[in-house]
Each structure stands twice: as C-alpha cells, then as structure tokens.
Write a structure and sequence with these properties.
Layout: E1 2-6, E2 22-23, E3 26-27, H1 28-36, E4 42-46, H2 49-52, E5 58-60, H3 68-80, E6 85-89, H4 97-105, E7 112-117, E8 120-121, E9 126-128, H5 133-141, E10 156-160, H6 161-164, H7 170-173, H8 180-190
Parallel strand pairs: 1-4, 1-6, 4-5, 7-10
Antiparallel strand pairs: 2-3, 6-9, 7-8, 7-9
Helix pairs in contact: 3-5
Length: 198
C-alpha cells in the first residue's frame, strides 16, 4: 500500500497553501505524513509540484487539471497500481495512525474502505484498491467530478462512526482546515494553551 496526500484545491476560503499552516506548532501536512508513514511503503504528494518540492516527497500531478478530488484520486490509483492507495487530505491535522490502520484492516474482499456517518462520507480519507481505477477514470472522463461518482460500480466497506469511536471523536478525526474558524478550532484542540498565528 502507498499513501497519497492530496494537496489540491484552491484554498479560496483560507489559503492555497493551507497544508503548511501549523497546528500544535507543526505544519498540517507534516502531521498527516507522520500519521500515514508507518503504514505504507511510500508517501506521495498529489498536487502542484512547485510549492510541494521542499517536502522531500515524490509529487505527482492530476491528469485533468481542475478536475477536483476525483482527478487527484485517479492520479493516485494509476500511480499505486497494483497496490492499494490510502488517500488523505493535506488539511486534516488529526488523522491518526491507529485509525488509518483500522481502515486498512477492513479491506478484505471490498474494493474500497470509506468512513461513513449517516449520509456523510469521507471519500478523501479512505483506502482504494486497484479495481477502483477503471470506474474512477471513466467517471472522470464522463465529466463527473465528485469523488463518489463511481461508487455504484465498486464494492465498498463502509466504516461507521461507532467502529471508529475507539480512535477518537469523529469531528476531530476528520476535521478539515478550510476556514480561519477551522484553523482556530484545530489549534485549540491540539493545544488550548498554545498561541499560533497564520
């Protein structure tokens, strides 16, 4: 299995380089890398190489610029084959190694493992097997941009909030830093006493 940190998005609500913002005194992208690294053979970044080149990781680009998360996932699946791809967003400071290991262990005969709470899914913090590549690429070629566009064509192991409860609160585990308010909340959760600035 390889890990793919998705560093895309225009960051219009906060910063296009939001993964470099610090939470608990550490850049978010480095927190994500530390969480995935013990589980995989390689950690790869998906996004624009220019701002990412200083991180010391291999960087791949999306096949369809502006294609959104599904394009980034397609890039990861092509690069990972024949291995599984663990995808995580670069703006999720509280993804944890134990939680991701649990997702990995649920793979079994399913094509993908995706956390889900009711109608809320976390398709960008999930595991995808090689069987997802064709359906994902076909969905992208058809102009469908949502990550879940191909889900009806693959077998998914949904992982519930109850199953993930031993690893922490759902809203903390899957917190994405998209706004200044999200960043303030993440910093307070990491260390209420620590003062950080943008």
């Amino acid at each position: 299995m390889k890990a793919y940190i998705l560093a895309g998005g225009r960051g219009l609500r906060l910063s296009p380089d939001k993964g470099f913002l610090t939470v608990g005194g550490v850049p978010i992208v480095e927190r994500v890398r530390a969480a995935v690294a013990p589980l995989v053979a390689e950690v790869v970044l998906v996004g624009d190489p220019t701002p990412l080149e200083g991180l010391g990781l291999r960087v791949i680009t999306e096949p369809d610029e502006g294609g959104g998360p599904l394009a980034a996932l397609c890039a990861a699946l092509v690069d990972a084959e024949p291995d599984d791809a663990l995808v995580v967003p670069w703006d999720a400071p509280f993804v944890s190694t134990p939680m991701l290991a649990f997702l990995r262990d649920q793979r079994g005969a399913a094509d993908a493992v995706v956390p889900r709470r009711g109608e809320l899914m976390e398709p960008l913090c999930a595991i995808y097997g090689p069987a997802c590549r064709g359906p994902a690429q076909e969905a992208l070629a058809a102009g469908r941009r949502r990550t879940v566009s191909f889900y009806d064509r693959v077998a998914i192991r949904w992982v519930t909030e109850e199953e993930l409860a031993p690893f922490g609160d759902w809203d903390r585990l899957f917190l994405n830093v998209n706004t200044a308010e999200d960043l303030a909340r993440a910093r307070a959760l990491a260390d209420p006493q620590q003062r950080e600035t943008l």
